[in-house]
TrEMBL record:
Name of the protein this chain belongs to: Replicative DNA helicase
Organism: Herbaspirillum frisingense
Catalysed reactions listed for this entry: ATP + H2O = ADP + phosphate + H(+)
Ranges of compositional bias, category Basic and acidic residues: 438-454
CDD domains to which the protein is assigned, alphabetical: DnaB_C
Length: 454
């Protein structure tokens, strides 16, 4: 079979020259070329000259033919004559954005070719399993895809016309709406629910019901939207058990021991299965996910089915890159925030809390209790803490109530909402008459003297 001839070169020398020439005649054109880097240039002398131009402009100096020649010195042959030629052959800097885009595009295609060759070499020579090689290949492609074009700042007044139109759409009910959690009291604290592009952290100590809460939210969202639940803690069968228990209002213990099922339980099971059939809910139980894995799974569901909400259970089980756990967590939360904006989805991220709060008399969580990194509260658009007083005080007057404390919220009103928690069914629901936290009983002062013995 004849090998197909290459129909397109993987470089464009004219585009590279036009970028350099535009920068030499107009240093301010640097603001219109996007995120172009020296490594994007094909020719070595072009890389050297571009890096020097960027260095001089970045230092606040004017860069022209003479200063460029002095800066590159002997690293570029006949640099003075060539720089003069570049500047003379570029009539205007108006099209630098288009030329820079061509240079970036060619660099990306060269990267794909190089990666493809490396994939072939890995497949032919590596003794590692194919799944490991696929993960490595995915990481390489992800790095190629991370090249971004810088967005130019705009004057705020120029955006007001679009803003007013969006405000009118909100009034008419046709604008972008937050994604409801299914719990009105929680939505109120979040100013309507989870907004696209937001990262919402839900944190609690063990046994508080954070996985059940996240599943309930995902189920509620899946009725009218699409949600993906990534569980690194529980296998899919356990997730299904909990969903059937919650949606069918069947005690989880009976599902785990079917011999105890009662006749009316089967009605609930049938109802739950039918409801799940009608829901746009996707689940995955791969353990030890990396940020790359989360991105690939979310993008896959988004592309094939559409995606509105991503739930991750939970942060501390994810693998990250960095010298220590703090830097790893920081990279993960920052990446998830970027992913939410990139895919235009809401992300609910579950997180553990430090054990230190167990040493306090009042064990209700505060932001300082977030485990592993302060980056969690910095990157999150909202932080919700779950607390059930009965876990620590079995005779609590708030037994059966879960406090959802919206402690941090950029777009909402911090405060606490109460939800009913039916533990045997792993189900949350709104309280019929609202909720106010019960006040602890005040101890009567101890009487002394004769009065103490009366």
């Amino acid at each position: 079979m004849r090998t197909p001839e290459r129909t397109m070169e993987l470089f464009n020398i004219s585009a590279e020259q036009s970028v350099l020439g535009a920068l030499l005649i107009d240093n301010d054109a640097i603001d219109r070329m996007g995120d172009l880097q020296a490594d994007h240039f094909y020719r070595g002398d072009h890389r050297t000259m571009f890096a020097e131009i960027m260095r001089q402009i970045g230092a606040g100096k004017a860069c022209d033919v003479i200063s460029l020649h002095e800066g590159v010195g002997a690293r570029v042959d006949e640099s003075l004559a060539y720089a003069h030629q570049l500047a003379s052959n570029t009539p205007s800097s108006a099209n630098i954005g288009r030329y820079a885009g061509i240079v970036r595009d060619k660099a990306l295609k060269r990267g794909l070719v190089a990666a493809g060759r490396q994939f072939v070499e890995m497949a032919e020579t590596s003794i590692e399993e194919g799944s490991v090689l696929v993960d490595r290949a995915g990481s390489m492609l992800e790095k190629l895809a991370e090249a971004k074009v810088r967005q130019e700042p705009v004057r705020a007044s120029d955006e007001m016309s679009d803003y007013v139109e969006e405000l009118e759409r909100r009034i008419d009910g046709t604008g972008a709406k937050p994604i409801s959690t299914g719990f009105p009291d929680v939505d109120k604290r979040l100013s309507g629910g989870v907004r696209r592009g937001e990262l919402i952290v839900v944190a609690a100590r063990p046994k508080m019901g954070k996985t059940a809460f996240a599943q309930n939210v995902a189920n509620n969202v899946s009725l009218d939207h699409s949600s993906l639940f990534l569980s690194m803690e529980m296998p899919k069968k356990q997730l299904h058990d909990r969903n059937i228990a919650s949606l069918g209002r069947v005690p989880l213990s009976r599902l785990l021991q079917p011999a105890d099922l009662e006749n009316n339980d089967w009605t609930g099971i049938t109802h739950a299965i039918q409801k799940l059939t009608d829901m746009n809910l996707y689940v995955d139980d791969q353990p030890a996910l990396r940020l790359l894995d989360v991105r690939m799974k979310a993008k896959q569901v988004k592309r094939r089915h559409g995606l509105d909400l991503l739930v991750i259970d939970y942060l501390q089980l994810m693998e990250g890159e960095g010298d220590n756990r703090n830097s790893q967590i920081e990279g993960i939360t920052r990446g998830l925030k970027s992913l939410a904006k990139e895919l235009d989805i809401g992300i609910v991220l579950l997180s553990q809390l430090n054990r230190r709060l167990e040493e306090r008399p009042n064990k209700r969580p505060i932001p300082a209790d977030l485990r592993d990194s302060g980056a969690i509260e910095q990157d999150a658009d909202a932080v919700l803490f779950l607390y059930r007083d009965e876990v620590y005080h079995p005779d609590s007057p708030d037994k059966g109530v879960c406090e959802v404390n919206v402690a941090l919220c950029r777009q909402g009103e911090p405060g606490t909402a109460g939800l009913a928690y039916i533990g045997e069914q792993t189900r949350f629901e709104s309280l019929a008459n609202g909720w106010e936290r019960s006040q602890p009983k005040k101890e009567e002062p101890r009487r002394r003297g004769i009065a103490e013995h009366l």
